[in-house]
């Protein structure tokens, strides 16, 4: 898909029918690394599940990913541009981690287009605790799990470490400007929202999903007691069933 500023975005879709669910990956993520269980498990003859490689990630390169302080807003514009290019007027949104923050911005800016919103692993603001968590993972070779490295090294190769360092620098820059990501946007959302989380998430503390549930007007919170950051990958059947019920309700 051709978007603003001369960029090309890789988009994939499964299923068909009148409903569209757009899944937004997390930091460093692509459609296939982050949402294969949802592309396969939530698509049907009545629901098309769409995902993409955000600008600068995966197959949406070149150019390389950049993390200016407004990059979530840039990604939100790309989401709408993809839906426009596909001729989709109304859609459901699912966002994981960084993608959750972007999804909040899209839902707030386009209330007439977003039917329902599912978010997990996101944070509407950055605290010093968050910065410590990011910095604890800055060194990919020393701190990332084998699974994480096996997921991302085939995609990025030698670009993985400098790109992740740039992400950590981007978080530091947002924190230095006050730390807000999407707090006011979240409070203005009017569509139904399902907030999910892993109670043992080592990256995003529980106060972040709780903040979303408390501050988004029409939101409810469901936690996975043993879940960490990747609940949709670790528990795909339970996760997909919960999301499917919410989308159909």
TrEMBL record:
Residue ranges of every copy of the AB hydrolase-1 domain listed in the record: 21-149
One function term, GO molecular function aspect: serine hydrolase activity
Matching Pfam families: Abhydrolase_1
Protein name: AB hydrolase-1 domain-containing protein
Organism: Rhizochromulina marina
């Amino acid at each position: 898909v051709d978007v603003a500023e001369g960029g090309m975005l890789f988009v994939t879709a499964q299923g068909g029918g009148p409903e569209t669910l757009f899944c937004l990956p997390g930091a460093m993520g692509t459609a296939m690394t982050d949402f294969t269980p949802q592309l396969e498990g939530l698509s049907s003859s009545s629901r098309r599940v769409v995902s993409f490689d955000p600008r600068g990630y995966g197959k949406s390169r070149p150019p390389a990913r950049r993390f200016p302080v407004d990059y979530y807003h840039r990604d939100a514009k790309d989401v709408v541009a993809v839906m426009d290019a596909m001729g989709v007027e109304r859609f459901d949104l699912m966002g994981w981690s960084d993608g959750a923050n972007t999804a909040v911005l899209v839902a707030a800016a386009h209330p007439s287009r977003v039917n329902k919103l599912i978010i997990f692993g996101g944070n509407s603001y950055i605290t010093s605790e968050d910065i410590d968590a990011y910095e604890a993972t800055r060194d990919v070779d020393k701190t990332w799990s084998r699974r994480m490295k096996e997921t991302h090294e085939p995609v990025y190769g030698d670009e993985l470490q400098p790109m992740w360092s740039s992400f950590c620098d981007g978080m530091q820059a947002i924190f230095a400007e006050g730390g807000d990501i999407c707090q006011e946007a979240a409070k203005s959302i009017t569509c139904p929202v399902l907030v999910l989380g892993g109670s043992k998430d080592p990256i995003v503390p529980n106060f972040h999903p709780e903040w979303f549930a408390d501050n988004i007007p029409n939101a409810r919170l469901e936690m996975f007691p043993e879940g960490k950051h990747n609940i949709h990958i670790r528990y795909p059947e339970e996760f997909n069933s919960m999301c499917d019920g919410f989308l159909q309700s």
